[in-house]
Each structure stands twice: as structure tokens, then as C-alpha cells.
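Fold these two proteins, one after the other.
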Amino acid sequence: MDKDYILNDKEYEIFKQFSIKMTQNTKKDYLSKIILFKDITKSNDLLEITKNECKDFMEYVEQEYALSTCEKIFSYLHSYYAFMKREKHIEINPFAFVKKPTVTREKGKKDVLSIQEINQLIDSLYKLNARDQLIMVFLATTGCLLNELVKVKWKDLIVDENDNFYVRLGKGKKERVVKLHPYCFRLIESYRYFSGLSEIIIPTDEYMFTTQKSQSITDRNVRLIVRKAFDMAGLSHYSAKDLRHSYAAISLMLGADKEDIKKQLGWSDKYYAIRYKHVVNFVDSESIDYIMGKDNFKLNKK
């Protein structure tokens, strides 16, 4: 990126004030969107941006990115300029005159795999290595987020007196313990074998999913793995987030309680389940126990 389009000293000082309470990752995310804005508008001074430049930028964004990303970019920039107005660096927030891109929160058929499609995906996983097979089954049977999967450590695996296996996901208010499908745990054992790790799982601080250089895997790595798996299964129109949507929709269809799904997926409110009202009649007729009890899931025959 041309150095002329990087934030100047004043802009960056304002950004530091604006982001003072943000986590490091959130701060980087905001900064990248602001730099993108300055780069595309080719502005010399972000404090002199006009509403028309903001509108032109959002038109560009909507042509280049998914609608959910457009909404995020708009929200970030609107907040940044609202802060500058509040701190009297500018008189008017130019994004106040731009229409916000909106994404429907309701999920449709295109967001959810059927049981037949999940079976189709499972049948094709033999083409992947042990780690990537595990990642796909882990995502499909826990409904976890990508940023939760990459942070799982060996110490987060738990076994009870009945040999049921669990994993600790998330952190802070979203930390939760969820049950693992038996096939998922067998893939963990296979993954350890092919990685040259001992049969006995020691509860260490080492990440479960690593690269060939023993570094923790990234969200981007996982997206590439998911894309490859869907392509091989002939399901290229699906993405990683659709595995989470599928878990929620199928569990609800099979009778899982909304409160159970809230705990399983780390939702802040069980009423997120209403987003799936248009797809529960689509998925073949609970959390993981509901899925484990169904013969039409090939996972249960592995």
C-alpha cells in the first residue's frame, strides 16, 4: 500500500484515543478497515472526508465484499466518525448520510446443510489428512466458531467417569463445556497417532491444531481447509459458518431445547434460535445427543 495513504500522525492519535478500551484483535480489525477507507478514497485527511466520498466508498465495498462484511465496515467507520464528532474533531459525521447495508439474521436453505449433504461431506473426508478430517468433524459436531477451534488446547479435553468426552470452548462469559461426538474423539486419537504424539493425552497448554511447523493454526488456514473439503464433496456453495448454522437448525429440528442450543453454541440469548424458523421444516426430520441417536447420520456408524 502506498505510504501516502497510511494514517497521518493526527489521524493515528485520534484512533489511539478511539480504540483505547478495545482488545488488540479488535483494534487491528478497526484499523485495517480505516486504512482501507483511506486507501480507496485516496484521502489526504480523514477529517475532511465528505458524505459523497463515504457513499462512493460504500458502493465500492458492496461490489467487493459479502453483505455481512459491508455491514461491519460501515459500522466501524460510522463509530470512528461518531467518536471524532463527539470529541469535536469534526462538526458532522459524514456516515450519518450513508445508508447502512443490512443483513437479514434469519437463515434460509442456502445457509444450512441437510442431513444428506452432511453425509455426503463425511463420505468425502477420507481424501483429507488426519488433522483436516478432524477439523471438519469437530466443526460439524460442536457448532463452534473458527476462532474457538484454533484456540483449543490439549488441556481443554475432558473425560468423565462414563468415558464421555468433552471440550472446553470460548472464554469469559462465552466459555462453555460441550460434549464430543464419539467419532470426533476417535479422529482426535487418529490425529495424535499420525502426528507422532503419545496415546495418552496430557493436559498441556499446547494447541491441539497446529501447522507442520508446530505453530497454532489460524482462522484463515481453517477456512481454506473447509473450502477444500466442501469442494471435494461437491458442496462448493457452503462455507465454514454454514456448519454452525446447520448444527443449530438440525438440533432444533430433532427436538433440542433452545436453552441447550444457547449453551452449546455460546449464544447470549436463546431467542437467536428464531433465526432458524424458516429452515427447521427443511432439515430432515441436541445438542449432540440428539444427533448421536439418529441412524441416518453416517457419523454414528463410523
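Now the second one:
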Amino acid sequence: MPHRSAPVRSKSHVLPHRLVAVAAAAALGATALTACGSSDDGEAESGPVSLTYWSWTPGMDKVVDLWNDGPGKKDQISVTFKKQASGDTLVTKILTAHKAHKAPDLVQAEYQAVPTLVSNDALADISGEVGDAKGKFADGVWQQTTLGTDAVYGIPQDSGPMMFYYRADLFKKYGLQVPKTWDEFARTARTLKEKAPDRDLTTFSANDSGLFAGLAQQAGAKWWTTSGDKWKVGIDDAATRKVADFWGGLVEEGAIDNQPMYTPAWNKALNTGKQIAWVSAVWAPGTLTTGAPDTKGKWAMAPLPQWSAGDDVTGNWGGSSTAVTTDSKHQAAAAKFAAWLNTDPKALAALVKEGGIYPAATAAQTSGALAQPPAYFANQPDFYTTAAGIAKNTAPSAWGPNVNVAYTTFRDAFGVAAKDKSDFGAALTKMQDETVADLKKQGFEVAE
């Protein structure tokens, strides 16, 4: 079943020292990395090539075997897969290995970690090696591996387009309509409270920063951008403040719950119908299967509510790419494998079957194992067709080199604000200020 990638969880992976000029420039997309070109300068290598790939995706060894027994054997490019932990643990390990010039040829990199790896000169620009791969992904997903430049730092592997999940039976019982706008969402929450005070439409949770980031992304936020040779932090921008004020207002008035997700109490709320909807992503069926087993077949999925009627845009919550490192002596060969892994029909079918991912490649989102709905949503045959339509309109994101600091501050500041039903705006300002302060501390130039 589809799953989400683990979010960045700590400060551990950002190097504290001032980055050298060329690495910082690469993070900004201002110049090309000196080591970005393929080590073989695009020329065919003679003799067999052996590559090492670090990834946490379940069943990746079986997918790699397909390459080694097929295209890899023909091209004399063999890949050795080495299972890794995800999140900050892997990023830290990559940076430690890179510091010793011993990073593997290929790594699985979460989208929000790409700028950190690039700013540390750990990822190679493979734009000259990926051919027509760009056209096989939604623009908003592809953009997460380019940092808004012509350079390409990875091939998208999986994604997490966001959508709205709701208890169809309870919506019918209380005469509720599926909200198409966020204003309708707020009215639905209040109507439910009037009709069933013991139930909540949903909860605002601060224990997974990716949810809020995706909602801000849908609203048009760009948290990190560049201005000349400087980073500009826009976490406290108008789009994000609109999102924060909206959810903070609902929490303050008691229209929705303020309890965190993924706890026993939250699972119980979903399983008993105390919470009857959830703003989530395409991987939600897996979470609901384990958290709310008694409600299988009672849920339905719809597009995310929009800020303006008639709009059709979603955010992304989770996902990763396959990247080539600057330490690789065979970057062209590594890029060839990365492209195959994430665009070849057989490879994608195996990734879905063995790894349970939701593929970023659009052609794979309604074929093979995804031709049928998740078992939990057997009552909604068009689940993946609907999901694919939603995914095509994923808004572009804008990540920076210290996402971990922003995420940590979000969990702390918004966690307190949600619990106390206090000002979400103040929490957002703190998130902005601490992110800017950390960039300056690391030695990045920051535009005010």
C-alpha cells in the first residue's frame, strides 16, 4: 500500500560550519558544482561498472535484481543495494561518508533534504544524463529535485499528493456535504458540532510538520527562495499565515479537535467515529488500515478543499528521489539506473508491489498494482484514478538547507499553541525567526 516517507526530525544533519562558496552557490543554483559533470564526461566507459545504492524502501533488493538481470547486465552496470534507515539518520550518514569522499554512488533522498545535500556538495547535477525524464512527472513534483534551476539533483521516486478523507456513512447521517472550499470545510466542522457535539470533523495536529507544510504549499507558500546569492525565508508569508489563521481559528473556537495524530487516542477517535474526516495524503489507507480497522469500507476520498471555488491544486506530504552523489566515479551510469528505476514500467510495477510506494511517475499511478483501489477503500473503485488526477496538480514547493530547524520549531511552537488554543500567528513568527537565525548561524547570506 502507498506510504509516506519519514519526515526530517532533528538538527543533526546540517553541518554547523560556513559552507565553501561553490557549495553555497550550488544550493542557490547560481553556479554549477565543480564536480557536477559526469566523471566520464558523457563518454562510454569501458569494462563493467559497479554501483552502490543506499535506500530504505522495502523490497528494493528485488527491484535492483530486475536491473542487474536485465538492462544492467546488457550495459555491464551492476548495482549493489544496501538497506538504510530513513530521515535524518540517512542524511547524516551520507554527509559523514561524503566528508571522507566515500559516499555511495546513489542515495534515496527525501525532497526536503535535497537542498541540504546540495549545499554540502554531496549531490551531482545529472541534467545532462536524464533525457526526457522530466515529462514523465507532474511539474510540481519534478521541481522538487531541481531547486528551481536547470540543474537536476535526482529523479522523483514517490510522492504524497494530499486529499480529503471522510466517513461517507456519517456524512450522510448528519446531512453533510463534502467541502469543496476551505470556507465550506469550516462550516461543515461547525455544523457537525451543532448536530453531534461529541464528534469532531478532524483535528489539528502539530506532531508531523509535513502536513502543515503541504497545506501551506497548496495555498501558494514558498518557504525558501533565493534572491541573488542570498536565501530568502518566507515561512511567515501571506499564504502560510492564511493557513495558520484558518486552523488556529477553528481550534480556538472548538470547531475541531486539537489532539495530535498517530496516538492511541487518535486511532480510537478514527475507529469509533469521534473524528469523521482527515486531511491527509495518498498513503492514508495504510494508516487507516492499522489505526481504524473497524471502519474499513466506510471511508471515501475526495480532492482537498480549495481556497477559491473552481481552483484545482493540492500540496504534497512526503516523497523522495533517487540521487547521484558527487563522490561517484560513474555518474552517467548511476544516472541511467536512477532514470530506469523511476520511469521504467517494470521497475515501477515492482516498486509498487514490493515497496508499497505511490510512484511519482504519472503513467504508473493508475496501472499495475494501482489499477484496483486499496482494500480498505474497496467501495471506491476509482480511488487511484481520482488520486492521479489530483496528483497532476501538485503545487510547486520551495525547500531550503535547514528544513529540519523549521520543522522542529513548528512541532514545538504549534504544539503548544494547539494545546493551549493560543495564537497560531505567534507560533508562525517564531518558526520564521528561528529558521532565519539558524541560516545566519550556519554562514548563509540571508535576504531580509
